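Appendix B. Chain record.
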Amino acid sequence: MDQKDKSIDETSIAEAAPARRQFLKATAAVGAAAVVGAPFISNAHAAAGQTWKVQSVWDAGTTGYKLFEEWANSIREKSGGELTIKPFPAKSVAADNNSLFDAVKSGVLQGMNPFTLYWPGKIPASVFLSSYPMGPDQPSQWDTLFYGLGMLDMTRKIFAKHNMFYVGPIQHDANIIHSKKPVTSLADLKGMKIRLPGGMVAEVFQKFGVSPIALPGSDIFPALEKGTIDAADYVGPAVNYDLGFHQVTKYILMGPPGMMSIYQPVDLMDLTVNMGAWKRLSKKMQTFVEEQVAIYSLHHFVTIQRANMEAMDKFTKAGSTVSRLSESDVMAFRKAAIPVWFEWARKDADAARVFKLHLDYMSNDIMGYVSPSDIKGMKL
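Structure tokens predicted for this chain:
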């Protein structure tokens, strides 16, 4: 990445802000916003400013963390000193994902930048707050769910029960699998130990004979190197190359052409903060932060997509081979996934409420993802 790409400069922010503001205003999700390209005008009460310690799940040095760090460091100047965000990489304050959640809930950290689906044991509905096997599979669909169909408000009410405020989703990437042995079909997965996120994704893979292993991103390389696992799901090519997966695997598994991932095609991140820290911000500042997260989401997504293309060339030069699942594999995976949707939706009222929103959206002819025959006999 060259120097001009290393920061979210004022010009790119000024260009992105009006379109994003118009979208947010139209959906009434965030409301009227301040001009983001210029410093936020502080009042005397807020002039002293606040500092948030925010830990990301990105490992230091990766493309993802560099983007997050640059964005976080830009907030002080843009807010006129009213808010400073001190970024921290994975494990630097909270040692693992569970302790990260608890650290933000208790206020040890003021915020986190996680993958939203990391909390199925604490928040069952979280499996429906990021992409899941054979569910909505386009970034625009997730923006529509959050900002157009009311899922943002649902999500904030769910996190409020844990003393946290969910600021907004951050578009990231699809997930792919790196393997030590070739995988050309779902049948080849049988008997493999694969690092996977918990919840719905792990349960669907189990139906194909996989033994899911839960590991944070920073523990994947040594597990592959030692042979503790046969393969690992993680994020997209750019970050996975940064983590050195090409050194310990030779194969990359994707979906059919045009479908990078059949199990997690839109792996959303977010910014979530301690409720007390959020309430200490003025209303104006809260709106400012919401808008900054929305603009960062766009920048984060498109920058990583460009980096992915460069990384795939590097994987090829390193000797990695890409294999793709077939359309028949996709249909088999879908057949296995749909009952699991309903199982998770029945775990609590919040999960049912969010999934019902998804189901109505996917059943509408505008998407046409779900037909009555697909879900015959299945109930929430």
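Further analysis of this model is presented in Appendix C.
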